Amino acid sequence: MIKNAQKINSVHMLYDADLSQDSCGVGFITRKDSKQTHELLLKSHEALCTIPHRGGMSAEGIGDGAGVNIDLSLKFFRKVTGNPNLVLGQFGVANFFFPEDHAHYDSEAQKMVEEHLKQFDLPVLKWREVPVDNSVLNAAAVKAQLPIKQLIFGRPASLQDANHDAFEKYIQQALLAIEADGFNRLELQGFYPLSMSSRTQVYKGRLNSFEVIPYFVDLYDADHEISTLFFHTRFSTNTAPATMMAQPFRYMAHNGELNTDKKNRLSENAIARQNNKHIVFPCGQSDSGRLDQTLTRRINEDELDIVTAILAMILRLGKTTRHCPTRFAPCWNTSVCTRKKTTARLR
User: Fold this and answer.
1) Mind telling me the catalytic residues?
2) Count of CB atoms within 10 A of residue 91's CB?
3) How many Å apart are CA 77 and CA 126, to the nearest integer?
4) DSSP-derived secondary structure letter, 196
5) According to the model, what pLDDT value does residue 343 have?
6) How far is CA 114 from the centre of its chain?
7) What does the alpha-carbon distance between residue 98 and residue 193 come to, in Å, rounded to a whole number?
8) How far is CA 99 from CA 46, 146, 220, 238, in A?
9) Strand, helix or coil for residue 236
10) 5 pLDDT above the threshold of 60
């Protein structure tokens, strides 16, 4: 048993480790039967309202960042597109932060995205700006937010009969191409894809946890029915708050672990060089954001299932696996060998 030294100490201290609350808040809600309902979004608001103490807030009341990752709502997007025949798995949704200079470069960013969609034969169904309710924020918080541009697109002709996984993997290839272009154009500084998928989408901003659902009008639309979501509220510790660092990301919500960041970046670059590719990260990205990108590539490029991909990215402490569950040991041993090989290639 590990004893709390503070409790043993006879002198009463102001700090109690058991009551520590200075770290990000995270959680998820899902329906076991996968049925989409609006009730789940109402429950998510209840959950987000219980964790404001797990997120940072400036003296002006601006949140460090909060948001949700949710499955695509069939009923909602049938209404938005005006297409009652829309089917899950036959369309995708991409959400973007557009460049900081909206007046001059929003059209350039949209043109760039559409060019890549054309290259991948992904038909544009609709562009829209995600509606928000500024009345739920104070004046300072309103100025800190970035508008989200939403793109709804269909399947390419070449994948009409393909399974859902094949379509999702194809979308991720298009996303990588969009990022490689958008992140390297100085005039598009601030451009950032929050999500692009046929399964899920992300809503987030420089918000407090209790502001997320009321702020995004889509999320309290009664026709917006979902079956699963995970949420995050950020407590900035080693970086200043920034909209792009708000979470959750595309595959995960993460409370930050710098010890794995360098290893994963080295591994990423080594694998990319082996395949004659170049990894592109946006300026100012957090360690959590990079980890999510690494996870995305391990799933879509290495074709690992999400559990194996996550285990492969965890640094194993010590030289043995005697303390880890037996079923995980082979995976860890394999990933350690892979890391040694990629490190050797870099040298």
Assistant:
1) 24
2) 23
3) 10
4) E
5) 40
6) 22
7) 8
8) 33, 9, 27, 25
9) coil
10) no
Task: Identify the weakest region by mean pLDDT among 31-40, 253-262, 305-314.
Answer: 253-262
| Across 100-113, average pLDDT | 87
Calpha distance 288→244 (Å, rounded) = 11
- Per-residue tokens: 89: 């798995």
Most confident of 98-107, 174-183, 311-320: 174-183
Q: How many CB atoms lie within 10 A of CB 129?
A: 11
Q: Residue type at 171?
A: I
HEC string of 78-111?
HHHHCCCCCCCCCEEEEEEECCCCHHHHHHHHHH
Would you say the C-alpha torsion 44, 46, 50, 56 has a positive or negative sign?
positive
Evaluate if residue 1 carries a pLDDT over 50.
Answer: no
Among candidates 264, 265, 257, 256, which has minimal Cα distance to 232? 256
In our burial notation (b when 16+ CB lie closer than 10 A, e otherwise), range 255-293 reads: ebeeebbebbbebbbbbeeeeeeebeebeebbbbbbbbb
Residue length of the chain = 347
248 cis-preceded (ω within 30 degrees of 0): yes
| Mean pLDDT within 62-86 | 93
pTM: 0.80
Alpha helices in 241-286 (DSSP H): 258-274
Residue 7 contacts by C-beta under 8 Å, 6 or more apart in sequence? Answer: none
- Note whether 60 and 202 are within 8 A (CB): no
**Tokens for 40?**
């789940």
Structure token pair of residue 343: 């490190």
208 versus 297: which is more confidently predicted?
208
Q: Please give the Cα distance from 240 to 62 (Å, whole number).
A: 12
For CA atoms 328, 330, 331, 337, the dihedral sign is: positive
